[in-house]
Amino acid sequence: MTMNPLLIEVPEAIETERLLLAAPRAGIGPALAAAIGESVAELRPWMPWAQQAPSIEDSEAVARRQLADFVLRKDLCFQIYDRAAAGRRLLGGTGLHRMDWEVRRFEIGYWIRSSAQGQGYVSEAVQAMAAMAFERLRARRVEIRCDDVNLRSRAVAERCGFELEGILRSDGLNPAGEPRNTCVYARLA
Questions:
Q1: 62 found inside a domain
Q2: What residue stretches are annotated with the N-acetyltransferase domain (predicted)?
Q3: 0.90 exceeded by pTM
Q4: For residues 157 and 48, is the Cβ–Cβ distance under 8 A?
Q5: Average pLDDT per 10 consecutive residues for the chain, totaling 189 residues
Q6: Could you tell me the maximum CA-CA distance found in the chain, to the nearest angstrom?
Q7: Cα-flanking dihedrals φ and ψ of residue 74, to 5°?
Q8: How many domains does the chain have?
Q9: Half-sphere exposure (CA, 13 Å, Cβ side) for 79?
Q10: CA distance 50 to 37
Q11: Which of 15, 16, 182, 189 has its CA 20 to 30 A from that of 135?
């Protein structure tokens, strides 16, 4: 019998050498809107939710939905903060998505604001999420899925020790509505 996911303890904060990964909370709408607004051009090809800069109100609503889903164990989003920056600057987001609690399978997603790209923050966050999934949540399988032409995302998966298991051809549509191929990377317990 599978344990009720509502009873599973999930840390609300994870610290790495440079980062704080924090569960969503009310009040982060302004910081979230700023990070996405700065990065919308880079995120647009990959993220359906980043087709235009969001308003503060829209970002606050997103944060509150993420908080509700976190509590219900439906989706485990975390914001990525720079621990060293004054006020802990919001750098992006990560999380465990499309979870199967019975199988103990999770998918890691991630994005980073443009001014924080190329500094290893995403790889550091992904390693922390994978460790949490395997050590705390007893994951059997952790995946990263990305568009086959998203070379930066593929490089993160490969740097973090995920193995390319296959490419699903024309399995979905990109945000522009065109067919896309999806790379499936995985690590097993």
A1: yes
A2: 41-189
A3: yes
A4: no
A5: 84 96 96 96 92 95 97 97 86 97 96 96 98 96 97 97 98 92 97
A6: 46
A7: -90, -30
A8: 1
A9: 26
A10: 9
A11: 182
